[in-house]
Design brief:
single chain; 291 residues; alpha/beta; Rossmann fold; Pemi-like Protein 1, Chain: D; 2 domains; 7-stranded mixed β-sheet; 4-stranded antiparallel β-sheet; 13 strands; globular; DNA binding; ABC transporter ATP-binding protein; AAA+_ATPase
């Protein structure tokens, strides 16, 4: 579904260049539900904008649903954003029109495509558990209900890809769990590819794969050991839900987790020694490098 290779994004001002993405590599399968996590400024929102056609890469390769997005014209991008991708934002002001009802908000993107399928809006509100709130104005809905309306809007035109930017950032933990469960159900029932961007590592417990971004590159990936359903059946299990893998790029470069560097006293060092011992690569701090 999504293939990024050597993806670079540079933002330029009069006398400054900022590298938001620095040769990022990522592959996402069709129908996958995954999360991208990282600290503020790591590049995760920049990547989401690229996937959604809201911004263009400076260099590299970006293929979505078999289409090369670096070759898109402006018309191609408009068509892509209308028909191929849906967005859910943390800020409901970007998702919803306040003076419309929940149903009217969902109907709007359908009408913009020239269709008048009111039943589609009702079907989507039912899918997100809000059929009983169809005629409610936004001020009558809770934050979690508004976010579920936003998810229904994102699905209005049958997108193949759903992108969510901090979708649980403005709701409490109980509602956050309900929204993430809804994403899992939509992924299972519709087969839609869902990519969630967040800074919350707890999200890893709800998805099968998590990619961590650091300094504009994928630094590690966490894959679920067992299915989410199996883990729900054993709520008292103590085993970690995911196993974490560092990412080795084609040039042999590896990002070492910052916690490891701090433990070895290498946080402010740019030199280490590598040794191959019993089939393992050992990283030694500089003071142990010589005899």
């Amino acid at each position: 579904m999504i293939h990024c290779e050597g993806l670079v994004k540079i933002y330029k001002t009069a006398d400054l260049e900022v590298f938001a993405l620095q040769g990022l590599d990522l592959h996402i399968e069709d129908g996958e539900l995954m999360a991208i996590i990282g600290n503020s400024g790591s590049g995760k929102s920049t990547l989401l904008n690229m996937l959604g056609g809201l911004d263009r890469p400076t260099a590299g390769k970006l293929i979505v649903d078999g289409k090369d997005m670096l070759k898109f014209t402006e018309r191609d991008l408009v068509r892509y954003k209308r028909k191929s991708v849906g967005f859910v934002w943390q800020n409901n002001a970007r998702n919803l029109i306040p003076y419309l009802t929940a149903q009217e908000n969902v109907e709007l993107p359908i009408l913009l495509t020239g269709s008048r399928k009111r039943w589609r809006a009702k079907e989507l509100l039912d899918a997100v558990g809000l059929s009983h709130r169809a005629n409610s104005k936004l001020y009558q809905l809770s934050g979690g209900e508004q976010q579920r309306v936003a998810i229904a809007i994102a699905l209005a035109n049958h997108p193949k890809l759903l992108l969510a930017d901090e979708p649980t950032g403005s709701v409490d933990s109980k509602m956050s769990n309900q929204i993430l469960d809804l994403f899992r159900e939509l992924n299972r029932s519709l087969g839609i590819t869902i990519v969630i961007v967040t800074h919350d590592p707890e999200l890893a417990k709800k998805v099968d794969r998590v990619a961590a971004i650091r300094d504009g590159k994928i630094s590690s990936e966490m894959l679920r050991r067992r299915s989410y359903a199996e883990e729900l059946a054993e709520l008292d299990q103590e085993e970690q839900s995911h196993v974490e893998y560092a990412i080795l790029d084609k040039a042999g470069r590896l990002q070492v987790p910052s916690g490891y560097l701090e433990t070895l006293g290498l946080k402010n060092s740019n030199k280490v020694r590598l040794e191959l011992a019993e089939g393992k690569i050992v990283i030694l701090p500089p003071e142990e490098a010589g005899d």
